[in-house]
Every structure is written in C-alpha cells, then in structure tokens.
Design brief:
The protein contains 8 helices and 10 strands. With about 210 residues, the chain is of the alpha/beta class. A hairpin with a 4-residue loop joins strand 5 and strand 6.
Amino acid sequence: MTDSTIKTKERAAKVIKGLASRNMCGYYAEDKEEALRLALSLIPEGSLVTMGGGMSVWEIGLAPALKQGNYRFIDRAEYADPREAMLLAYDADVFLASTNAITEDGVLVNIDGNANRVSAMAYGPKKLVLVVGMNKVTPDLDSAMKRARNVAAPRNAKRFGVKTPCTVTGSCADCKCPDTICCQFLITRYSRHRDRIHVILVGEELGF
C-alpha cells in the first residue's frame, strides 16, 4: 500500500467520523467497482429510484446497473418533459446524487440552477445515496464553498452549454446571467433523520 493510498484512507476515515457526528452514514470504497457494489447494497430491489445530474453515479456504473436490474429507475432523459421526472423524486425511495464539495468534518455543499437536486437532498426522498470522489474533500466550509463555485460550477456550466462568464474564465464571477446555474446553495451540516443520508467516498477522482 502506497503512502498516497494510506493518506487517502486516513482522510476518508476522518470524513466518515465527521458524517457520523452529523447523523449521516459514511463509507469508503477504494475504486469504482467497490463503490458500485456498496451502492447496490444500500438500495433494496423494487425501490423507486431517481437521481439528480450526478456524473459520479454514471461513472461508477450505478445508473446502468439499476436500469438493468430489478428496480423502478427513473431516467429523466427518457421523459419528454424532464420536469415530470424531477417531481417524482420527492416521493422516491432512493435519490442518487453526488456533492459539489464535502468538508473533512462532514459538511456537504451543493449549488443548483433549477433546485431539483438540492431540494430533493434537503427533503422528500426516503434515502439519499451520494457517490463522492475523494477529489471533492476540502479542509473546511470556506474551501468547500470555493470549490463548489470555482471548480464544480464552471465545469458543469460548460457541460450544460450555458453562456456564463465562468465557462470562459473557469472561475466564478458572481454573475446574475439568465443562464447562471448558481441559483440555490445548500449546506447540509446535520441530518435530523437517522439513516437517510448515505455518503460513499471513493478513492478515485470522480465528477466535478
């Protein structure tokens, strides 16, 4: 085991301890394959499963596995009106997503444009399963906010093909453009509902 691997596992253990102190469940998977097995173990067969736009969920192969398995998986890309699929999230058994950033002591930071993702993370679905690459771990809340605004948001804006300053400069301009995807900010510092939020930390770079 390399020094880098040891440090990654130690950092993950610190995050998992922080999540536990905030009434959230944390897990560590060394790679995508282990993350997929772990995620599937948290989702009972027959569950109604929806998701936000999390790239990490696709990168570990979770979305395809659910589509092929014994689950009621809702893929909003298959809906003529994506809003219809988004609204189904609030009554889902499981909601899948990632997070834009997570602090070493377990605080989740997310930014959204339509708010379908952050609103479902805050309330509605019975269980959240979040797939999070260790590249998203930050020392504290201030650095988590900076990562969300200056790393995740510009890359997502470019992925969506919107016209915002950050797609050109690569950093947040605190803009008020009609296309801005930085409309709602959600900081999750504690879960009132035990066993609702499950965070799978993956020892690889995933998502934005």
